[in-house]
Specification:
This protein is an alpha/beta fold. The chain folds into two domains: 1-85 and 169-268, P-loop containing nucleotide triphosphate hydrolases (Rossmann fold, 3-Layer(aba) Sandwich), CATH 3.40.50.300; 93-168, no CATH class. The chain is 29% helix and 27% strand. The strands form three sheets. It has a six-stranded mixed β-sheet, with helices on both faces. The relative contact order is 0.16. The protein binds adenosine-5'-diphosphate (ADP) and magnesium ion (MG). Residues 19-22, 24, 42, 44-50 line the site of adenosine-5'-diphosphate (ADP).
Length: 268
């Protein structure tokens, strides 16, 4: 079989970007290949949310010769075209989503990349069937008539995952996916992400929580003050030394069944 170079989901090259008045990234480059699920780990203020916003076109990089932000090889996307390749699940989306939207409509809204569904939007029987399958798959089928604003945080998060999944995207980008979820909701949600990765989707997440990096994530990018300070496989990156330096606090890493956790280093 002929060798094919893997496609890049994300290709950022020599990017400068501002969040408000702060220059968060300068000469920032990062590539993530399809098939290589990746976590971008960094402390508060390191630029995680800014990175998400750049990739979801909520903010734009400074236009400079030789610099680009490409998603699946293309510079310019609108959310409507992007939705079948990359599903983006951010906290802004959860925050901004209409409280009155019914569960089923949250899922269907992914088809038009809209917030809630509108009368002029058409949905085929196939769309409705897919929405039903996605909800059943995520264990939220019984909530299809519930208003978004009356759901628990974990249920809302699953509906927003379903909103992305109805388009069957090749890749998913998530911002701190388990923030605000209790332990069972956290691990249920992570189990869903693990299934996505096992079925061939590329999952990318930005986080400062080690526990939300499931075993299937192979690559870790360490982000500090807008710079990549480490990039490699999980066991090389998630060491007590590198994390103590990343978070400027003495930490000890513990590993159980492919999951990582950190504790304060008591040896000091
Ligand atoms: N609207 C804004 N105006 C000015 N500075 C901002 C704004 N948003 C973020 N920043 C700054 O940009 C840096 C990166 O922030 P952010 O991307 O939110 O980091 P993280 O998500 O990793 O906590 C921080 O120093 C933050 O204070
Ligand atoms: Mg953030």
């Amino acid at each position: 079989m002929a060798y094919h170079r893997k496609e890049n989901v994300i290709d950022m090259h020599r990017v400068t970007a501002y969040s408000g008045t702060t220059c968060v990234f300068r000469d920032f480059s990062l590539c993530i290949e399809a098939g290589c699920s990746t976590a971008i780990l960094g402390p508060n203020g390191s630029g995680k949310t800014t990175l998400m916003k750049l990739l979801s076109s909520d903010i734009y990089p400074v236009a400079e010769p030789g610099s680009h932000v490409k998603i699946f090889g293309m510079d310019r996307w609108n959310v409507f075209d992007l939705r079948t390749r990359l599903g983006i699940i951010s906290h802004d989306l959860q925050h901004d989503y209409l409280r009155g939207a019914r569960g089923i409509n949250v899922i269907l809204s992914g088809i038009y990349a809209s917030i809630d569904t509108w009368q002029n939007q058409q949905f085929s029987n196939d769309d409705l069937q897919k929405a039903g399958e996605v909800m059943d798959d995520l264990g939220i089928g019984t909530l299809k008539h519930r208003a978004f604003g009356t759901m628990s945080t974990g249920q809302q998060r699953r509906f927003l995952l379903g909103r992305a999944l109805i388009n069957n995207p090749d890749a998913l980008l998530l911002d701190e996916p388990t923030t605000g979820l209790d332990l069972s909701a956290t691990f249920h949600y992570l189990d869903q992400l693990r299934r996505m990765m096992q079925s061939g989707k590329t999952v990318m997440l930005v986080t400062h929580h080690l526990h939300e990096i499931p075993p299937e994530i192979e690559r870790i990018v360490l982000l500090k003050e807008g710079h990549i300070v480490g990039d490699g496989n999980k066991t090389d990156m998630l060491t007590s030394e590198s994390l103590s330096s990343l978070f400027d606090y003495p930490l000890q890493v513990v590993t159980v069944n492919g999951y990582f956790q950190v504790l304060p280093d008591k040896r000091l």
